[in-house]
């Protein structure tokens, strides 16, 4: 054990003199700090945006009060009045933005057809959406392995190439001890940087110190151990530094870039999802066709869904709001199976990726971080379901005015339903990634130690 610590201390002295490695670690630290800054700034921007929505609603109400100073037809109010379904982020989303950079954090809703509003998004730079936003999870999943590769590609080959290895092996020191000391120092260094960034991010984002802290740190440690296991296996392969570097970069490209891309293509083919364009076109055709259908036909179809309004007055006018909103809702009903299939298809894709994430530790770690932060796909689908229920509550609020032909007064604005949805962490989903990473780490270290038992050639 004394020899182990002597070698460990020697690695520290060697590291301090290697300015390139010190600069590389400093660069990773700076990159991680920027990732924390970007994530916290983005979530703060979204929160500020969401906090401004009630004021926008109030201004809209004030404008309508001026436009309709007295009792008004609820149909006019439902057409011109807009409200919002809001998706508040979890505090942990600052460390792992997940899908919050591509999906809207709120939906502007009126009493019109739901689906055209539900899937409407603001314009965004497609190149930025393709590359994704920069957060701490990105640094840990994609950049930390590169640092591990830079620190470990010449773990033992450098001594062989410099002629030092024969002197080491001539001492009463086993190759396992030499490699273990070198690996332990690098592991301590990387885990120290990753842990420092994680704790800094938690403090910066003012996260609640709950059980998710241990899960985040466990995921970080196991993911780093996985890549050190890869370094150990490549080192035990006993090739030159150049070959080791190429092999390690090849593994990084395979597991971080190639496998996720191929898995995405395979899942898309295995779990096809209806095209959103088809849903939009069919809904518009149904709604536009409502103008030409006999009002009796439209209302009978609507009353089949809402028989409580069947005893209302027969429509004899050329235009009446309750008929207009009836065929708007029938347009939603016409595409409801497509919308359900679309959401089910997305969930099926997510579930399939979860079952296959053992093929890539990067997918496993990233999806676990997103689940921990409540920024994954199931959370977004839950928000869409919540927005759908909110639109149902708006219709339930306005229908009595429309079908009983009651006047809408200024006091009724305050009784309109409000919406709020906050992301919930999928802790169980995040923890499901831990056993897979643990098994991968055990397999790699077991293989590496087995290979190290072979005689090590000095040259």
UniProtKB/TrEMBL annotation:
Keyword field contains Transmembrane helix: yes
Keywords annotated in UniProt: Membrane, Transmembrane, Transmembrane helix
TM region positions: 20-39, 136-157, 188-207, 213-235, 242-263, 433-452
Pfam family membership, one: DUF3526
Top-level taxon: Bacteria
The protein, known as: DUF3526 domain-containing protein
Record organism: Hymenobacter lucidus
Keyword Membrane attributed: yes
